[in-house]
Amino acid sequence: MSGLITILLIVLVFIIIYQIGKASEYASVMRGEEKVKFKTNRVIAWLLVIMFLLGLYGIWACNNYFKNLMLPVAACDTGVNYDSMFFVTLVTTGIVFFATQAVLFWFAFRYQSTETRTSYYFAHSNKLELLWTTIPAIAMAILVAIGLKNWAAVTSVAPADATVVEVVGKQFNWLIRYPGKDNELGKRDFRKINDATNVLGLDWSDPHNMDDVISQSGELHVVVNKPVKLLIGSRDVIHDVGLVHFRMKIDAVPGITTTMWFKPTITTDSMKRITGNPNFVYEISCDQMCGKGHYSMRGTVIVETQAEYDKWLSDQKSYYALNMPGGAPAPAANDSLKSGAKADSVKAVSMK
Ligand SMILES: [Cu+2]
Fold it and tell me: Residue 50 belongs to what domain range?
């Protein structure tokens, strides 16, 4: 019974709304339909102007509210170039945005339909088509060219004196490997990966691996004003090395080594002073959704002087020393390394 009453009530409400609509229609006929139309036009035109002003205020308010989220100055040369590219893009598109929006809302207000004005039908103009196709095309081409130049700077061949550091993503942290005193990273083989004793699958038959240092806490130490080249990889799924303070990011793909290089120009200590934040740290974020622990893939970049870096590195034990206590480097067993099964037995020997 109550269901029927509800349906009847809904029907009744619809009938009332319909009747109100009809009544206002009759009223407009009695008052003169044209008059009502122009009055409505005026109201809408003013509402559009108000909407435009509210929109401008909204942009300003958002910018003001979120300005604390703005990044500090870029901490490397390529980052500074990236920021200037972003600024140029923002100014170019910003001018076009404000100009077109202002014209759009102003025309709707200024040229509203009135008793004396009839609409002008404007079908087509080749000149206009050419103008508003060519100018944006040229502007976009220039912006894209600047972008390609910046991208090439980051991904091009690194200077010969660059320190090479390996950054490998895994669910869910960054493994960072430094070449030891020999300044060369040893070979690695994914078949040798073992979470307990060989997180990166270092090939112990390669002497270059003996002094390699691995940070499992995701601490990337780099020297100020010295180029550093990152060799980036992944142990499982696609991750992404995001270095927001250096305005850089690149995917970490399993089976492929991606690289990018940069020259940090501001030490962590200087950046603490610049930002006025004594707890400031440069961050490594994972910029690719990689699983349920994605949020926790936070590493840090420590930009320091050469002396500080040398001291830090000399304080580190090599991964080999940490995981193969008392073990001697594996004998020359290059031939047996060709198969994964045999390679494991080599590792077992070296662990004894
Ligand atoms: Cu991730």
Answer: 29-114+126-155
